[in-house]
Design goal:
Blueprint: H1 15-24, H2 27-30, H3 36-40, H4 53-78, H5 90-104, H6 106-139, H7 142-145, H8 153-166, H9 172-200, H10 210-219, H11 221-231, H12 238-243, H13 245-248, H14 250-278, H15 286-289, H16 296-327, E1 337-338, E2 347-348, H17 350-367, H18 370-398, H19 404-426, H20 434-465, H21 468-477, E3 483-493, H22 501-510, E4 512-525, E5 536-539, E6 548-556, H23 563-567, E7 585-594, H24 603-613, H25 619-622, E8 630-638
Parallel strand pairs: 3-4, 3-7, 4-6, 7-8
Antiparallel strand pairs: 1-2, 5-6
Helix pairs in contact: 1-9, 1-14, 4-10, 4-11, 4-14, 5-6, 5-18, 6-8, 6-16, 6-17, 6-18, 6-20, 8-17, 9-14, 9-16, 10-11, 11-19, 18-19, 18-20, 20-24
Membrane topology: Multi-pass membrane protein
Subcellular location: Cell membrane; Membrane
Pfam families: K_trans, K_trans_C
Length: 639
């Protein structure tokens, strides 16, 4: 399948890139063997799965085929071939639907976009739950080594999480170089332990046949259905693979998955199944009991390192999703640090980082164990996966014009599987599955409120600013009402239809007009990156020679909008002469939001929108404007 922006160009994948991907994106799904089988056969589950030979074969077979269908087929083979100039993730799908879906059916496209926003909101829940459950599950292994150390699990987990989030500012590349070799050791180790377990009961290999999964579902549906709520834990991390695709690319992630991660995880699941068949008492912690007694403490340490990396996968994904959401208008402008000079997709978002850290620590202290968090985890993941599958097939139809029968067939099969997982998790609402839904609904409410509020503010600003062409006509009709002064000024504005409030105020109060006036609008296009040759568009607004120009500076939703650098791309023939950007002054209009009587939103949404606006990053810093030449003029707008 083509890239969303054109035919994909095959690039050589270096081993270092694959190693980096192993250290960033595979931690989540690669540590699922620690807790998946343990959770399925948990005797304290509200719908326990009895430990029997048939059930063990059926569960292991279901795990294997769930991984093959959801991860290998849905994500690696299908979804991850859809990139928006190399960027992936659910926000990239939303951007593509906004670009192409409206032409086919604006109402349907709007509903799909809303579904995508909710999927992104669920991913934020996933980003909070994954670090908590992953690190807890690994540190809990210490209880297998020495039961008396159980009281140290929660405080040790908290310390590890604080260190992890404190390290994020170093950047994805640094983290990947450190974590990649650790994950290679991890996958080789769990694969080896799994192979040893299989050797003790080779018959478990029969579970690779789909007949065992189908037979378990068909013959014991009452048990198998409820087990799906835990089996879905085996595919947790699939959504992070796609969200992190912009960091390493599809081919590097696909190679890492097929050549190392998938075989290692499958061997581990088979080995644990073989162990349970030999010793049913091992269901309490089959992953760690698969390791010889002398190696359990080193395995706990290695598992802890691996689960820290699992947390890294979703943290990195959360940065990408939040950044894209802000650029697409679903979140306030965020302060973003680019951590790589060579790879633009590698970013660090301080606000999201510290919010996640506080949230993760809250979950650790509130739930105390990985078992208590298991069903919350599954709901977050399966919700995002289901919506991603839906958006993928919608794009396949409206953009690639895939035959309707093929879309219906593919979507019917894959969504049926996703919805089975979703339905099973809904039965666990009272046991923790409510948590990601609450987080998702909260994030969804914030995102949709921000979008609606921005639209209301835009309408009000357009009314207050008035027509730009009309304003220029007034200036030309009464040149004696102001004096032209030397210099270049840049006024930031939302478009070329209205007059910047700062420009109106300058003429009204100072009665001056500079020789060169650039009215600049920032456009965020629904593509990740905009090349320099397409960055700038200039319009003389119908009056050549008056020194007033409108400039559109175009950026992708993954670009860092450095306005001075963009303006340096202007050619003298575009600007009626050279522009002295090194001496130019920049004028910004800031808006104080207050609640008004207009029925633009419900009162509680107005309060939420105004509160969220305080999180907006400083515009001058966001656009890279020189502080000593930036003037800010305020105004008040009612919403």
């Amino acid at each position: 399948m083509e890239s969303a922006t054109g035919p994909g160009v095959k690039q050589k994948v270096h081993a270092a890139v694959v190693v980096g991907a192993l250290g960033i994106v595979f931690g989540d799904i690669g540590t699922s063997p620690i807790y998946t089988l343990q959770t399925v056969f948990n005797p304290d589950d509200p719908h326990p799965v009895p430990v029997s030979t048939g059930n063990v074969y059926g569960v292991v077979s279901l795990i294997f085929w769930s991984v093959m269908i959801v991860v290998t087929l849905t994500y690696i083979t299908l979804v991850m071939r859809v990139d928006n100039d190399g960027e992936g993730g659910i926000m990239a799908l939303i951007a593509m639907l906004r670009r192409w879906g409206g032409a086919a059916n604006s109402r349907a496209a709007g509903l799909l976009v809303l579904a995508g926003v909710f999927g992104a909101a669920l991913f934020f829940g996933d980003s909070m739950i994954t670090p908590a459950i992953s690190v807890l599950s690994a540190v809990e292994g210490i209880k297998v080594v020495e039961p008396g150390l159980g009281e140290l699990v929660v405080p040790a987990t908290a310390v590890i999480i604080v260190m992890l989030f404190a390290f994020q500012r170093k950047g994805t590349a640094t983290v990947g170089r450190l974590f990649g070799p650790v994950m290679i050791v991890w996958f080789l180790t769990i694969g080896t332990c799994g192979a040893i377990g299989i050797a003790g009961h080779p018959g478990i290999l029969r579970a690779l046949s789909p007949t065992y999964a189908i037979g378990f579902l068909w013959g014991h549906f009452g048990i198998a259905f409820f087990s799906l709520a835990a089996i879905v834990l085996a595919v947790t991390g699939a959504e992070a693979l796609y969200a992190d695709m912009g960091h390493f690319g599809h081919r590097a992630i696909a190679r890492g998955w097929l050549l190392l991660v998938l075989p290692a995880c499958v061997l581990s699941y088979l080995g644990q199944g073989a162990l349970i068949l030999r010793d049913r008492g091992a269901i309490g912690s089959p992953f760690f009991l698969l390791v010889p007694a002398w190696g359990r403490l080193p395995m706990v340490l290695l598992a802890t390192a691996a689960t820290v990396i699992a947390a890294q996968a979703v943290i990195t994904g959360a940065y990408s999703v939040a950044s894209q959401a802000a650029q697409l208008g679903y979140l306030p402008r965020l302060r973003i640090a680019h951590t790589s000079a060579s790879t633009i997709g590698q970013i660090y978002v301080p606000g999201i980082n510290w919010l996640l850290m506080v949230s993760v620590l809250t979950l650790v202290f509130a739930f105390q164990s990985s078992a208590a968090l298991a069903y919350a985890f599954g709901m977050a993941v399966v919700g995002t996966i289901t919506i991603t599958t839906l958006l993928f097939f919608a794009l396949a139809r409206v953009h690639w014009h895939t035959p309707l029968w093929l879309v219906c067939l593919g979507a019917g099969v894959l969504l049926t599987i996703d919805l089975l997982f979703l339905a099973a998790n809904l039965t666990k609402l009272a046991h923790g599955a409510w948590l990601p839904l609450l987080i998702g609904l909260t994030a969804f409410t914030v995102m949709t409120t921000w979008q609606r509020g921005r639209q209301a503010v835009t309408r009000e600003r357009e009314r207050a600013e008035g027509s730009l062409c009309g304003f220029i006509d007034l200036l030309r009709a009464d040149p004696g009402s102001y004096a032209r002064v030397p210099g270049t000024v840049v006024f930031l504005n939302r478009g070329k239809q209205t007059t910047p409030l700062a420009l109106r105020a300058n003429v009204a109060h100072n009665h001056t007009l500079h020789d060169q006036i650039l009215i600049v609008s920032i456009e965020t296009l629904p593509v990740p990156h905009v090349p320099d040759e397409q960055r700038i568009r200039v319009d003389d607004l119908g009056y050549a020679g008056d020194g007033i120009l409108h400039v559109s500076a175009r950026f992708g939703y993954m670009d860092s909008p450095d306005l001075p650098s963009a303006l340096r791309l202007l050619a003298p023939e575009q600007t009626e002469g050279p522009v002295a950007l090194d001496e130019a002054s920049y004028f910004l209009s800031t808006v104080e939001l207050v609640r008004g009587p207009a029925q633009t939103m419900a009162p509680w949404r107005k309060r939420l929108f105004i509160a969220t606006s305080y999180l907006t990053a400083d515009a001058a810093e966001f656009l890279g404007l020189p502080r000593d030449r930036t003037v800010i003029i305020g105004s008040r707008i009612q919403v």
